[in-house]
Each structure stands twice: as C-alpha cells, then as structure tokens.
Amino acid sequence: MLLGASNLTLAFRLVVARLRAALPAPLGILAAIGHGRSYGRTSRMLARELPGITECGLWRALDRTPEDETDGATCALLTDFGNDIVYGADVDAIAGWIETALERLARHRARCALVRLPLRTFERVSPLRFWMARGILYPSHRIAFARVRERARALDARIVELARAHGAALVEQREDWYGVDPVHIRRRRRDAAWREILAPLEACGRAQPARALERAALGRLLPERRRFLGRDEVHAQPAAELLDGTTISVY
Hints:
The chain is of the alpha/beta class.
C-alpha cells in the first residue's frame, strides 16, 4: 500500500524496485499517488483531477482482497501530507484523513510507516522561495507563508501522535534531501532517501533495476478513475503485471 503525492510519484519505479527486492514475490501493490494529491479532497493538476486518497477505490480493492492474503502480510507507507496545508485544509481535517487511512489499514493488520514533514527544510525557506514555489506548483492557491509554517509544525506533531497511537513507524526526513525546490526530494538524493523511507517496511534485500519491458509497463500506469480534460475516465486495474507476477493497481 503506497499512499502519497508528487515525491512518491516521481520515485515510483525506484520504490517498486526496492520493495520487489526486499519482500517475497509476487507482490500486490495498491497505490494512491499523483502530483498534487490530497488525502481528503479532489485535487487538480493542470487538466487532470483525482479523488482524495480516503475517497478513492483503493480501499474497496483492499477490502476485496482475501483475508488470508492481507492479514498480517500488508505493509503501508503514508507520505506527502503537505499538499493539503497549501490547499487550505486545517490541521484537524488533515489529521482526520490520515487517521481514517490508519484505521482502515488496522482492520487488515497492516504494518504502517508515516513520513514526517520536512520541517527543517520549511524553516530555512525564505518568503521569496516559498512565493516562487507556490506560484509554480500551486498557482491557484494563495495561503500565506506564515500560516503554512504554523500548520506544518502543528500537523507534524499530530503525525507523531497518530504514529504512536496506531503503532506505526515514523520516518524522519533529512534536510540535505532537498535543494532549491523545498517540496521535492532532489533527483540525486532519491535513492538514499527512499532507502531510509522504506526501511521500516523492508525485510532485507537490495533493489534491482527493472527490465526494459517492466519500465515500459510502469510508465503507462493509469488510475482507476480520473477526470481529464473535463471528461471522466475509468481504467481497469491492475494497471500492470510484472514478470515475477507482481501486480500494480493505481487509484
């Protein structure tokens, strides 16, 4: 179970490779990802809209999975919580969406990891850098810099509380993972960053590069439901099946 937004989307091939190397195959990967993804609201990025993570079809797919395949054998990563702050959601709402996901995962005895917000990165961002990043990544949102910082600190504290309450692992983010862009992990730091992020879910192993056919399959993933150019689209899942039998479903 992979829940997140742009950082998870950008590193998705790497993440899949690491999990396949570390966990017994075949895997059934259920992912709710996408640039600008919200945990609780419909989000738009250019011409594409996706439902909130708590509202998407991933949960129906998980509940349809036979109990003997999920009970104690499910791992879940929850990350990329910052979009909802910029979208104007209050901390209680965001924490409620995260807790809803954790409660649903608990019914399947999932082993969960939560990735904390990169607060050190936020703290060193200047108002000018924030204004530039907001204009490029979130052009239709005008939340103030001071409010983002305030809500980020409060939400990170709630993430820590939720992890403790639900027995989830906590993953710290390192300041040197980020560069001029305060939102996205630098390309050259992705391998090291995701090695640390995925460590609580990995048994052991070393990531192997995907074969050419698999790279092509991973590049064609389409979510179960999206709205694109004003039209609703539905795509059958799994979106891809890899050579070891691993299936990937995207929501």
